[in-house]
Amino acid sequence: MSDQELIGEEEPSFHADAYEKKWIAISMVLLVAFAATVAIAGFAFGFQVPGPESQVDPRTVADSGPFSQPGLRDLGGGEYEVYMLAQQYLFTPREIRVPAGSTVTFHITSVDVQHGFKLQDTNINMQIVPGQVSRLTAEFDEPGEYPYICHEYCGIAHAAMFGSLIVEAGGGS
Ligand code: CUA
């Protein structure tokens, strides 16, 4: 008799028409592309989720260490860093001035609730979560005023929580 009788059942087989197979193939390509995007972002560009080294205690973060003296630091060679505290309802500092051509790294944390930090006309857009330090770097070649705002609702005076980065002309070399 036939093989079928030996096995007892029909062998399972996969039937898909050509159109279906095409979409399965496209889905597989997309999955690989998305996985590659995450891998490239993480390994080649250094995008990382916050690690334990950037954890702080929001109750004491303003008492010692760099966040006890928030503000701008000149690292030389056109490099700057800013340590900034977010709290209901202000950013400290509220104003930052750098010369055109500067590269500025922002380190920001919250001492109370979740805030946001968006710097207009740049790609800086962060959640500011108590217990974590958010860090991003941007270059400022164009002189002008770059307002920063809290874009995470944090209470009654959320709309009053903003500040300004001023890029001054003639400073760059
Ligand atoms: Cu801070 Cu909204």
General description of the model:
- By secondary structure, this protein is α+β, with helices and mostly antiparallel strands.
- It is 18% helix and 35% strand.
- The protein has 2 helices and 10 strands; from the N terminus they run ααββββββββββ.
- Strands 1, 2, 3, 5 and 8 form a 5-stranded mixed sheet that branches. It has a 5-stranded mixed sheet with strand order 4-10-9-6-7, with no helix packed on it.
- A hairpin with a 5-residue loop joins strand 6 and strand 7.
- It is elongated and about 75 Å long.
- The N and C termini lie far apart (89 Å).
- Bound molecules: dinuclear copper ion.
Tell me the distance between the termini. 89 Å
Assign the structural class, choosing from mainly alpha, mainly beta, alpha/beta, alpha+beta, or little secondary structure. alpha+beta
Envelope shape: elongated
User: What is the helix fraction of residues, given as a range?
Assistant: 10-25%
In this structure, how is the largest beta sheet organized?
Answer: 5 strands, mixed
State Rg: 26 Å
Total count of helical runs of at least 4 residues: 2
Taking pLDDT < 50 over at least 5 consecutive residues as the criterion, the unreliable ranges are none
According to DSSP, the number of beta strands is: 10
Order of helices and strands: HHEEEEEEEEEE
Average predicted confidence as pLDDT: 88
